[in-house]
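The protein record filed here:
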Amino acid sequence: MQFDDDADLDTSEVQDVRGSRIPGGRATVGGGIAGLIALLIGLFFGIGPDQLGLSSGGRPAATSSSLAQVQQTCRKGSDANAQEDCRTVAVVNSVQAFWAQEFTRRGGRYTRSPTVFFSNRVGTACGTATFAVGPFYCPGDRKVYLDLGFFDELRTKFGSSGGPFAQAYVVAHEYGHHVQDLMGTLGRSQNGLTGANSNSVKVELQADCYAGVWAHHATTTKDPSTGRPLITRLTDADIRDGLDAAAAVGDDRIQERSQGRVTPETWTHGSSQQRQQWFYQGHSSGDMARCNTFR
């Protein structure tokens, strides 16, 4: 995956609170098996710590980082080609530029959502979350939350081949939830039900499909600062990395690794094969109308 060296990165779409102190109560995780399941579910790319029992009960807000690292170092596409956090900024810019154009094309209006970089724990409108939750989207404040250390765990703990596009898939999946939120479909997952045919799984698979739709258009979505695509090259190997990441976080693969058996009745995100299938469906078609997992 290659970015236009001369493109300007829009760091206003990212809030860097790494190293900040989070006001309010401690994040809490239930003990025993319930706590373990919550952590495992969170690591699948969740939709908010409140759904996982990780909320502290309050609504502490993330504070601004005194370092403002991203704003200082991530200015150009060349920075995205050289640094992981800047690459994530560029992916956020590309994903949101695509969805803004797609909503306009369909007669709608896209509301931009910032990504919050945090370390260790963060306060959100969904409660306080720790790094163990993994990347997630909070509908309460319409923000994506990401501890960049998760990308190392995606490779070392989940067995993904890694690579820049594996990381881009994670970001695009979370913005798929934002699209669902704007379209009113995200609430279908919030009935507490699990299982291979549950709405929770269908919502997650649709977010995978939406990530694939963005990938299809990534090299043709124009950057407002240059009038040229921000992403200039996306190879078949990149897409394979994305598919591999999708498989690595399938419910069946994680359950087999963590508990030695697969229990489809507790699935929340879908199998490895399903996650790959729906990402590929979005990527091959480039059409969000082909992402109707509820059909």
